[in-house]
Amino acid sequence: MNSESPKRWVVIGGGIAGLLAARRLAAAGHDVTLLEADGELGGRLRHIEVAGHTLDAGAESFATRGDAVQTLCEELGLADAIVSPTAAPAWVISPGRAYPLPATGWLGIPLRPFARDVRRVLGWWGSLRACLDLALPTRGIGDDATVGEVASARLGKRATERLLAPVMSGVYSRPLDDLPLDAIAPGLAADVRARGGLIRAARSRRSLGTPGAAVRGLVGGVATLAKAAAAEAEERGATLRTGVEVTGLQPPVADGVSRRTTAPSTPTRWPWPSPDTGRPLSWRLPRPTLATSPSW
Ligand SMILES: Cc1cc2nc3c(=O)[nH]c(=O)nc-3n(C[C@H](O)[C@H](O)[C@H](O)COP(=O)(O)OP(=O)(O)OC[C@H]3O[C@@H](n4cnc5c(N)ncnc54)[C@H](O)[C@@H]3O)c2cc1C
Predict the structure, then answer these.
(1) Phi and psi torsions of 55, nearest 5°
(2) Residue 277 is part of which domain span?
(3) For 253-276, how does the pLDDT look when each residue is reduced to its tens digit (9 = 90+)?
(4) In this structure, are residues 138 and 192 in contact, taking their beta carbons and an 8 Å threshold?
(5) Which end of the chain offers a freer environment for a tag, N or C, measured as fewer CB atoms within 10 Å?
(6) Ligand 1 within 6 A of CB of 217
(7) Are residues 244 and 271 in the same domain?
(8) Are 127 and 196 in a shared domain?
(9) Candidates 19, 24, 36, 44: which one to mutate for ligand 1, based on the most atoms within 8 Å of Cβ?
(10) Are residues 230 and 185 both part of a single domain?
(11) What tens digit of pLDDT does each residue of 97-129 get?
(12) Same domain membership, residue 287 and residue 197
């Protein structure tokens, strides 16, 4: 990416990743067109109106472990909009029940099952049941075990449904039965086996991190970040198109002349086999052309 040899780039997808790529390429002097299938830019960084309030529909905070997002906010002129979250606990609201999440947890796993705020959610029986995790053998837990199966067997249904599910299925957008332990933290399944349970593994992970919420937010919502990135990408000369879905990539025709196709009858996906060798052409293609719908 060097302004002395500008090239033509097409960025597929106008979520925050695509917008930042477009912004960076345009800043380096390249000719950039971003294509977004949806009618709006931002992807999962999106505002939603609820009862007259503008809320974040997707990401609502950013981690402060590194300073990448903080720096980005500053670059985009949003430094003054950065705010720390309130110290009040997050609440779970479900049909017929509303409760604050316990203060001492790691991704919903209660680190102290008999703490007062855990007992308030689980009751004595639920807390006692969760403690079984400290005593049950861990031998049978495979590397591909899911959070759902391990948590319900070790902590019980109540803790799994009331504490782990609201946090983890929200963060990872998957039901716990489809969420391998190792997908939430690499090596977690082995850690659970070695340390003797979910609670002990969670305690060790939590002790490695900063206690409390290591996140920040933006006044006006995190979706503001996508809007600012889009505005700056356009200012730097990038063309941002919405309502254009990329439905395929085509290899250049034999004589090397690029061909652009609109709305192909059969969308092509990477990698597709080479007609000569049957091997995937994948990224070895010099300059694939795009097929888009509607026409671009
Ligand atoms: C409910 C929820 C809460 C979250 N909370 C947080 C949080 O608090 N903090 C945090 O850091 N992260 C959070 N995340 C995760 C974070 O929002 C995402 O990781 C991030 O926004 C992903 O950005 P992206 O650009 O990679 O992808 P996306 O935002 O998914 O953008 C991809 C874009 O590509 C477009 N696209 C896809 N295919 C095509 C195509 N063929 N042609 C053209 N366009 C196409 C899509 O329409 C989309 O706009 C949350 C996610 C969700 C769903």
Answers:
(1) -125, 160
(2) 8-83+219-293
(3) 555 444 444 444 333 333 333 334
(4) yes
(5) N
(6) no
(7) yes
(8) yes
(9) 44
(10) no
(11) 899 999 888 999 999 999 999 999 999 999 999
(12) no
Question: Looking at the predicted structure, is the pLDDT value of residue 2 above 70?
Answer: no
pLDDT, greater one: 130 or 85: 130
pTM of the entire structure? Answer: 0.71
Residue type (1 letter), 91 = W
Task: Give the pLDDT mean for 129-139.
Answer: 96
Q: Is the residue at 3 inside a domain?
A: no
213 lies in some domain: no
Instruction: Please indicate, yes or no, if residue 1 is contained in any of the structural domains.
Output: no
Asked, for residue 75, whether it belongs to a domain, the answer is yes
* Three-class SS state of 141: coil
Q: How far is the CA of 17 from the centre of ligand 1 (A)?
A: 8
Q: In this predicted model, what pLDDT tens digit does every residue of 25-79 receive, in sequence order?
A: 999 999 999 999 999 999 999 999 999 988 998 888 888 877 899 999 999 999 9
Helices (H), 84-216: 116-131, 147-154, 157-159, 165-172, 181-184, 188-195, 198-208
CATH number of the domain within which 65 lies: 3.50.50.60
Q: Is the CB of 102 under 6 A from ligand 1?
A: no
As a whole number of angstroms, the distance between CA 132 and CA 135 comes to 5
For residue 212, the one-letter residue type is G
Q: H/E element holding 245?
A: strand 245-250
Does residue 95 share a domain with residue 199?
A: yes
Q: Using a 6 Å cutoff on CB, does residue 92 contact ligand 1?
A: no
CA of 178 relative to ligand 1 center, distance in Å:
20
CATH number (domain holding residue 98): 1.10.3110.10
CB 230 within 8 A of CB 14: yes
The span from the CA of 132 to the CA of 231, in Å, is 54
